[in-house]
Amino acid sequence: MTKIADIVLPEGYRPSEDETYMAPQQRAFFYRLLAEWRRQLLDDATKTVAVMTEEKAAFADPADRATLETDRNFELRTRDRERKLISKIERTMETIEADDYGYCEECGVEIGLRRLEARPVTDQCISCKTRAEHKERVVRSFDDE
């Protein structure tokens, strides 16, 4: 059995509705898309670590120091969200390798190529995601009362 990562795609390949849904080429396309996204996120994290370890500025003005700390905290929160996203990307890549990718975890229908291109880590069709978000809003508004 050919590994998804080893499938050679034609230059400029983009999944088409004319193909069999989640045929090996389509799965290889999404696998590469996710692998590139993960690489970019890891590169950003590496750069952040390098900048934060090099930055040893002494500030006479407490406002300047506070601004630096605020910026660092924001950067660290962003990297934490990205760390969670990397985990989700890796789980999705495993799903692609297991040939379970592209189908809604709730109802089992095809998620759709354009939705997957827009958000390759999605695991719900638009109907189930809309329903879940609506439930979440209702619960949140109930909790706020």
Characterization of this structure:
It is a single chain. With 145 residues, the chain is mainly alpha-helical. It folds into two domains: 22-101, DksA, coiled-coil domain (Four Helix Bundle (Hemerythrin (Met), subunit A), Up-down Bundle), CATH 1.20.120; 102-145, no CATH class. The protein is built from four helices and no strands. The protein has helices at residues 24-54, 62-97, 113-118, 126-144. The longest helix has 36 residues, at 62-97. 14% of the residues are buried.
Architecture blueprint of SSEs:
Layout (H helix, E strand, L loop, with lengths): L23 H31 L7 H36 L15 H6 L7 H19 L1
Helix pairs in contact: 1-2
The helix-strand sequence is HHHH
Q: Structural class of the helices, strands and pairings? A: mainly alpha
Global shape? flat
Q: How much β-strand is present in the residues?
A: under 5%
Q: What do the pLDDT scores average to? A: 89
Main sheet overview: none
For the secondary structure, the number of strands is 0
Q: What is the helix fraction of residues, given as a range?
A: 55-70%
The CATH class of the largest domain, by name, is Mainly Alpha
Our measurement of the CA-to-CA distance between the termini, rounded to an integer number of angstroms, reads 55 Å
CATH architecture of the largest domain: Up-down Bundle
